[in-house]
Amino acid sequence: MRDSVMRRILIVNQNWIGDVLFSTPAIRALRKNFPDAHLACLVPERCRPVLANNPHLNQVLTYDERISPFSLFKIFSLAAHLKRGRFDTAIFFQRSKTKAAVAALAGIAERAGYARPLRENFLTRVVPLPARNVHKVDYFLFLLKALGLETDGRQLDFFPA
Question: What are phi and psi of 148, to 5 degrees?
């Protein structure tokens, strides 16, 4: 996945505050691998404060977490919002089928994430799940390693206002 065309990267993050905090070592690793890229993270509004001051991110985007496969208006609205961001790559820390479909609708060419039933059709890089249960920090880092990226330790990052 180390590619010079990765200029605008979208991280589709988890829905829970603690899991978003556990994703910060992977966010830092992405910044280290792509120091000049625009790095954005998509989270529910309630998770925004965890990442709002993170210096490894250029942008924190939020969405209505009540989006479902049956909320066509919300799906197309989110896809249009992401399309305006001109992202060339999406990395899914979340296992949502709907968000993977939204990224495809938004025209994001590279979409990488873990193998999940019914979602693989929306991903361009599918990574097998870890062989055993692992801590969330390692779950996110394992995904990056499987994509050929270097990681930067397990230390959490939190930058309160």
Answer: 85, 20
Beta bridge partners of 40: 10, 59
Q: Give ∠ CA 48-127-99 in degrees, rounded to 5.
A: 40
Radius of gyration of the chain (CA): 14
For the segment 100-124, the average pLDDT, to the nearest whole number, is 95
What are the DSSP E strand ranges found in 13-155?
38-44, 59-63, 89-92, 110-114, 125-127
Would you state the structure tokens that stand for residue 134, as one six-digit string?
A: 């692992």
Above 90 in pLDDT, residue 72? no
pLDDT over 70 for what percent of the chain?
94
Nearest to 81 by CA among 67, 97, 94: 67
- The token pair at 88 is 């060339």
Q: How far apart are alpha carbons 29 and 85 in whole angstroms?
A: 22
